[in-house]
Amino acid sequence: MKKNSKGRGGMVVVTICGLFLIALTVTIGVFLFIKGNVTFTTFHHSIGEFLFSSDWNPTDMAGQGGGTVGAAVYIFGSLVTCGLALLIAVPFSLAAAIFITEIAPDAGTRIFQPAIEIFVGIPSVVYGWLGLTILVPFIRDVFHAPMGGYSVLAAGIVLAIMIFPTITTVSADAIRGVPDSYRKASFGLGSTRWQVIWHIVLPAAFPGIMTGVILGLTRAFGEALAVAMVIGKTRAFPANILSPTNNLTAAIAADMGNTANGGEHNAALWTMGLLLFIISIVCIIIIHLISAHNKKKTGMA
Predict the structure, then answer these.
(1) Category of 141 on φ-ψ map: left (φ > 0), alpha (ψ -120 to 50) or beta
(2) Can you tell me the distance from the alpha carbon of 264 to that of 242, in angstroms, rounded to the nearest whole number?
(3) Are the beta carbons of 135 and 160 closer than 8 angstroms?
(4) Residue 6 pLDDT more than 80?
(5) What is the Cα–Cα distance from 248 to 270, expressed in whole angstroms?
(6) What is the DSSP letter of 1?
(7) Do 161 and 127 meet the contact criterion of CB atoms below 8 Å apart?
(8) How far is CA 239 from CA 80, 150, 234, in A?
(9) Which neighbouring-strand residues pair with 232?
(10) pLDDT tens digits for 145-198?
(11) Are 242 and 152 in contact (CB under 8 A)?
(12) What is the rounded CA–CA span in Å between residue 133 and residue 192?
């Protein structure tokens, strides 16, 4: 009886915690929707203007509109920097995960993976400061960037370093979760180690690897301080990766404290926050769709 009561008590606690997390997520979403929707309901801007116009000049007076809230530059800046970060980070992360799990599993588990995980706890301002003092001057001197090294390239490299531990750790766990029977069967058929990794292990771990990639992408979208320190913060589309630009999170972090509550500018920044929240939700949905598709494909559902 005591064991059953403890089991029921634990189940109740876990259920309450789960419901609390669901309620918290819904509350945050509703709050962002209410605040972000003011741009369209109170100040009568269109969604098309916000998403596709580059004319950004909202008014700062509380209750007064009449400005423009085209956030296309910030949206494009977020997309291009995060895309570049993925292009840089994913190959290195996947190679590191394979090395940790398949090439040197003992040293990888005891030394390399813990070392990589340490990078997760480093504050973003440290990454930004290193990028500002080392990476930006390097890009300026080597590539002769037009704005002294502040560029999409600098932001992409900093973001790639920041998301590298997340993608590597999740990918390593996914690869490690592939049953050893798959490997033994492949070796028994005469496959080499690289054939086993490429044709058996990676396809089986693909949903988990994609989960790591998408989690890294969501972190890249949400990063503000480190990117703001190296991206240049100019309100213009970049001509190339050596040009400066701005992104959603940097704009929110720089301007939110200087806007009047209830003003057009403040509302537009809340709309940016709502857009970032929607992007995060979409990424989570994609993760579940990939997992469900893989289960259906392998007959595990």
Answers:
(1) alpha
(2) 32
(3) no
(4) no
(5) 11
(6) -
(7) yes
(8) 12, 13, 12
(9) 245
(10) 888 899 999 999 999 999 999 999 999 999 998 999 989 899 888 888 899 999
(11) yes
(12) 45
Contact, 75 vs 276, CB < 8 A? no
| AA identity, residue 7 | G
76-132: pLDDT as tens digits: 999 999 999 999 999 999 999 999 999 988 888 888 888 888 888 888 899 999 999
What is the distance between the alpha carbons of residues 203 and 175, in angstroms, rounded to a whole number? 9
Q: Which stretches of 87-233 are assigned E, i.e. beta strand?
A: none
Question: Model-level pTM?
Answer: 0.88
CB neighbours of residue 84 within 10 Å = 19
pLDDT band at 52 (very low <50, low <70, confident <90, very high): very high
Q: What is the largest CA-CA distance in the chain?
A: 75
Please give the backbone phi and psi of residue 62, each rounded to the nearest 5 degrees, phi first.
-65, 130
Q: How many other C-beta atoms lie within 10 A of the C-beta of residue 21? A: 10
